[in-house]
Design a protein that fits this description.
Layout: H1 2-8, E1 14-17, E2 26-29, E3 35-41, E4 46-51, E5 57-64, E6 67-75, E7 78-85, E8 90-93, E9 100-104, E10 112-117, E11 122-129, E12 136-143, E13 147-151, E14 166-169, E15 172-177, E16 180-185, E17 191-196, E18 201-206, E19 212-216, E20 224-228, E21 234-239, E22 261-265, E23 272-276, E24 282-286, E25 295-301, E26 308-313, E27 322-327, E28 333-338, E29 344-350
Antiparallel strand pairs: 1-2, 3-4, 3-29, 4-5, 6-7, 7-8, 8-9, 10-11, 11-12, 12-13, 14-15, 15-16, 16-17, 18-19, 19-20, 20-21, 22-23, 23-24, 25-26, 26-27, 27-28
Length: 356
């Protein structure tokens, strides 16, 4: 039970041919791909479900030997899979066929989980160790040749443990280190403290305008969204006044780079909320339990269609009983897809044709 419960915590181009006046002028619309991959958190393998442009799900389109894969990561439109157990801890895969192009099989730490590459060869990865109150979340350097290194001592062992803990901004990687926003220069590898908040950071976001926002959970004080200046000082702070919103660290906070809307799931109610970084409006977006999702595990907005994909389980105790609900921006349900993988844990939108 403990092992199971720990698992719960991817468009058109228009080509115009101009000819002489005696020739026929025509337009050819090339295919627009609207595909997605869903990652399953399984103890003995890595399994991927493919969701085609008609939103039909095919489970196990590719299965890897790596165990307990926890997240997708993308850098320069290249897809990485992070696994807590090998043989490959980090795998770069081709999104047209899911074949592995590069693997990192060496790690000095246990259970790597979340990755932010900042070049083709280097990045930062978060790992976990220990258990219960002694659980630590450390940050490590990763290199495609030397592998995953030791825990970095320039930061604490309380790094935010989710996909929004690390964000690349030009020559820096921003790091959610407990209550502290830390900046690492990718050239010098030097770490500096930018801001210390009064409660823990629950996520780092960058909107389509390039603005960076820091979300802070409600503990001693109200939850907030703080916009940063270019030098990472505070530009403005939006306080969350809705008492039902906590923005806790496990809220699956997410925002894609083509949007101004952040989305997250409130752990107490399961309701999905949204924050618009332009209008500063915070509002309830959806109640997935009404569509049969008892436990939310993924919340992501499609970068092109702007629809919001919420994945979860119909039953807390049955990881095979997964369901995807796709919401339009007007909060109506566009589609519901069942059986999208066992214990679905992450989602990647692809604009490439997938050949199964």
């Amino acid at each position: 039970m403990k092992s199971y419960l720990s698992k719960l915590a991817l468009i058109g181009l228009l080509f115009v041919v101009s000819c002489t006046k005696k020739d026929v002028v025509f337009e050819e619309t090339l295919p627009t791909y609207n595909n997605a991959f869903i990652l399953s958190l399984e103890s003995d393998k890595t399994a991927i479900t493919f969701l085609d442009e008609n939103q039909l799900a095919t489970q196990n389109v590719h299965v890897f030997d790596n165990a307990e894969s926890t997240s997708f990561s993308s850098y320069n439109n290249e897809l990485y899979i992070v696994s807590q157990n090998g043989p490959s801890y980090i795998s770069k895969v081709n999104t047209e066929n899911l074949e592995v192009e590069e693997s990192i099989t060496s790690s000095n730490v246990s259970s790597p989980s979340y990755l932010q590459m900042y070049s083709k060869t280097d990045g930062l990865v978060i790992n976990t160790s220990g258990s219960g109150r002694n659980r630590n979340y450390n940050l490590c350097h990763v290199n495609t040749t030397t592998g995953i290194g030791d825990a970095i001592t320039d930061v604490s062992n309380k790094i935010l443990f989710n996909n929004s803990a690390l964000i690349l901004d030009a020559e820096n990687v921003l790091i959610a280190d407990g209550k502290e926003l830390v900046v690492m220069n990718i050239t010098t590898k030097e770490f500096t403290s930018a801001i210390t908040f009064d409660d823990a950071i629950s996520g780092l976001l960058k909107d389509k305008n390039g603005s960076i926002w820091v979300a802070k959970e409600k503990r001693a004080t109200d939850a907030t969204f703080t916009k940063l200046n270019a030098n990472y000082s505070i530009n403005e702070t939006v306080t969350v006044t809705d008492t039902a919103i906590n923005l806790f660290k496990n809220s699956i906070l997410t925002m894609n780079s083509e949007s101004t809307n952040a989305f997250w799931s409130e752990s107490a109610s399961g309701k999905i909320y949204t924050f618009d970084t332009e209008t500063k409006v915070i509002e309830e977006f959806a109640t997935p339990i009404n569509e049969g999702i008892a436990l939310n595990t993924v919340v992501k907005q499609h970068p092109k269609t702007k629809q919001v994909y919420v994945i979860g389980l119909e039953d807390f105790m049955d990881p095979d009983n997964s369901v995807l609900v796709i919401y339009n921006l007007d909060k109506t349900v566009a589609n519901t897809v069942t059986k999208v993988g066992a214990s679905p844990i992450d989602l990647y939108f692809s604009d490439k044709e997938f050949i199964n």
